[in-house]
C-alpha cells in the first residue's frame, strides 16, 4: 500500500502519510512520583488529522514528544509500552516526522531565514544543489514573504513560526506533530500560522497530530479528537462534533478548552463600581535604544478606582511598555504616571518599598516573579519590604493561600508548581500587599479553562472591592468578560478608548467615593482593609 | 558580544573583508602571538601602523572601528597611563611631579610602548571579528579546522539567544522592583539582588537551551548521517596569501626590531 501511495504523491511526500500505533504506553520522568502519561492505546491511520486534548497534567506534550521520537529514555525513571511510526520505533522514524513547537524563539537555529530552513536538510545529508531549491519551495508553501537572507530576529512571532514550519516541511515529513504552535502568538500571528498549517498539510501526504489551546480554530483543522486523561489514557475518541457534543461540559469543568459552541457560557460581565480617578498617565513615551520608532508614543490615560481596563492590540503595539510604565517599573522618556494620593511625584521615582504597597504587577511569565524557596515565604516578601507588621502579613498570606487554592502547597518550591498554580501564585504575590492598583501582563496566557474562569472571577471581585485593574492582553474573551474600559493600541499609540456601558444602571453602586458594600468578607481586598496601612494612600 | 551585534563582512566586497573567517583569525593571531613574546616599540609600532592602514581593506570605515572598538581604546589609554605612572624606570627628564605621581620621559616611553603593544595585539583581532559573520565562522571552523558540527552549530544557536537574555535581565529587575526589592544604596543588598537575578536568568537559559536542543534534534541534528553544508566555505589562494602576508609582516617587524636593537623578548630579561 505504501508503494502505491509513493507513486501517487510523488514529489510532495516521498512515502505517503504515516501510521502511528501506541500500545500500553507510559512514561515517568526521573525524579517524579507521578507518571506523566500511562496506559495510552491509540491508532492513528495514514492521513488522519488528530487533535489531542486533555486537562493540564494529562501528558499531551509528553505523548507528542514520544511520537516525534524526541524522548530520551535516560530522562525516564520508568517507561512501558511502545510507540511506532509505520511499524518502526518512533526514535528510529525521526526522519519522517516534522515538529513544530510552542516557542519559535527557541526553535530557530540560524540568524538568516534561508539558512535556518536549510538546517534540517544539512543534517539529513541532502546534497547542496538540492538544498536551495527545496528551501525556496518550502518558504513559498508557508507564504514566507521575505528574502532568504532576512534576519530571523527581525520577524514577528507569527512569521518566525511560519519559518519554523517551513523548516519542518522542507524535510518532507509524512507525519507532522504540532505542540501548541500558536501559544506565543497574537490573534493575527495565530491566523498566519494556522493558515499555513492548513495549506501545507493535506491528508494525501501528511498525517497530523496537534495539541492546541485555541480549539475554536484547531477544531477546523482536524477530523478526529482524542481526549487524554491524567494517568487514564484515552477516555474519548471521535469526530470533533461527536466528542465535544458529548463531553464538552465535563471537559470544560476539567479545565479543557472546548470550542465555543459546546463550552459553557463565559461568566457574564458585571460593571464595576467605578469611582474617582486614581491613576493618571500624563504624556508618557518610551523609545528603546537603537529602535527606529518609539515603542510607546506620547500617551495619556486615566484609570479610576473600581474599574477594570483591558489594553488590547497586536504584538509590538506598545502594550507591555505601557503596562510597566503604569506600574512604575520602568522610566518613561517623557511624562510620568501619578497616583491621586501623590500628584507630585511620578511612580518611576518612588522607592520600591513604597511602590509595592500601592501597585501590584502580575508578569506574563510567573517564574520571573519567583524569589523565595517556598510558596509561603514568597507571599511574605512584599509585605515585609513594605513594612507591614508580621502578624498582619501572616494573616494576609493565609487568606490568599486559601482564596487562590494554594493552601496545600504552602511549603512547595514555586518552580515545582504546575502552570495554573504558578499563575495563581504570581497573582497572589501581587496582591500580598493589598495594592490599590493591579497591573496584569497577559494574565491568561497559557492557562486552562478552569484557571481562566478563576482569574475572571478574582479580577471582577478585586475591582468590585474598589481596586483599579489594568490588564494587557490578547485575550478578547477575557476583556469581554471583565473590562469596563477597552483601550486599543497600535504602533505605539492608543487608537481607541471605549468605556463599556453598564448593562444595568441599577447595579451601579456609583458615587464617587463610596465603596460598594458587596463582598465584605470573601474578597482579598476586603481582607486587605484589615491590614493597617501607613501610606495614607487609602481612599 | 561584538560578534552577536552582527557583522558587516558579508555585504562588502572588500579584499580582506570577504576572506575566509579562519584565514582572518589566523592572520590576526600570528602577530598577536609574536608580540606576546617581545616588548618593544618598533615591532608593535610597525604592526599597529599596518593594521590601521588596512582598515579600508576590511570594508570598514574608521568611524565604525572607533564606534565598536572603543573599549579597546579605553584599555590602551588605561594601560599606557598605568605603566607610565607605576613603572620602575623613572630616568630621563621629569615631565610631571605631583606628589606620588611622577612622570619622566623614560616612564612615558615605557607607558606608550605598553599601550602600543596592547593595541597591536588586539586591533587585528578586532578587525577580523568585526567582519566575520558568525554563521560563516561556524561553517569555516567545521569545514577547515574540523571542529565538531555539534559544537560549532550548537554554539551558534546559543548565540542567537543572547539578545533574549538581555531582555530577560531587564524583566527580572522590574519583577524585583514590583516586590519592593531594589539595590538602593546598599552594596550588600545589591549583591544579593544581583545573585538572585543571575540565578533566575540561568534557570531560564537552561530551559530555553534544552528547548532549543529538542528543536534542533527534531530536525535531525543528532542524526548519525554525514552532514552536508548548504553554504560554500572556501579557503582559496587569496586566503593563503592573507596568511602569508601576516607571517611576512610579523617577520619583518621582528627583524626590524632586532636590527634597530629594540628587540626585547619577555623571557630573556
How would you state the average pLDDT of chain B, rounded?
87
Overall average residue pLDDT of chain A: 86
Oligomer: heterodimer
Task: Please give the alpha-carbon distance between the first and last residues of chain B.
Answer: 37 Å
Low-pLDDT ranges of chain B: 1-11
* Lateral strand order in the biggest sheet of chain A: 6-7-8-3-9-10
SSE succession of chain B: HHHEEHHHHHH
Alpha plus pi helix count of chain B: 9
Which helices and strands, and how do they pair?
The complex is a heterodimer of chains A (about 550) and B (about 270).
Chain A lengths: L1 H8 L10 E10 L7 E8 L4 E5 L6 H8 L8 E10 L2 E2 L7 E4 L12 H11 L4 H14 L15 H13 L5 E5 L7 H14 L6 E5 L3 H4 L5 E6 L3 E6 L1 H14 L23 E10 L9 E9 L2 E6 L6 H8 L7 E6 L12 H7 E4 L12 H12 L3 H14 L15 H13 L5 E5 L7 H16 L3 E5 L3 H7 L2 E6 L2 E7 L24 H7 L9
Parallel strand pairs in A: 3-8, 3-9, 6-7, 7-8, 13-17, 13-18, 15-16, 16-17
Antiparallel strand pairs in A: 1-2, 1-4, 4-5, 9-10, 11-12, 11-14, 18-19
Chain B lengths: L20 H17 L3 H13 L8 H25 L7 E5 L2 E4 H27 L2 H11 L4 H12 L1 H17 L8 H32 L18 H23 L10
Antiparallel strand pairs in B: 1-2
Helix pairs in contact in B: 1-4, 1-9, 2-4, 2-9, 3-4, 5-6, 7-8
Structural write-up:
The complex is a heterodimer of chains A (539) and B (269). Chain A has two domains: 2-257, Rossmann fold; 305-334 and 351-506 and 514-530, Rossmann fold (3-Layer(aba) Sandwich). Chain A is an alpha/beta fold and 539 residues long. The N and C termini of chain A lie far apart (76 Å). Residues 1-13 and 504-539 of chain A have low confidence and may be disordered. In chain A, the strands form four sheets. Chain A has a six-stranded mixed β-sheet with strand order 6-7-8-3-9-10, with helices on both faces. A six-stranded mixed β-sheet of chain A has the order 15-16-17-13-18-19, with helices on both faces. Chain A has 16 helices and 19 strands. The longest helix of chain A is centred in the C-terminal third of the chain and has 16 residues, at 449-464. The relative contact order of chain B is 0.17. Helices cover 66% and strands 3% of the residues of chain B. With 269 residues, chain B is mostly helical. The longest helix of chain B is centred in the C-terminal third of the chain and has 32 residues, at 187-218. The chains are: A alpha/beta (539), B mainly alpha (269). At the A-B interface, strand 6, helix 3, helix 4, helix 5 and helix 10 of A face helix 6, helix 7 and helix 8 of B.
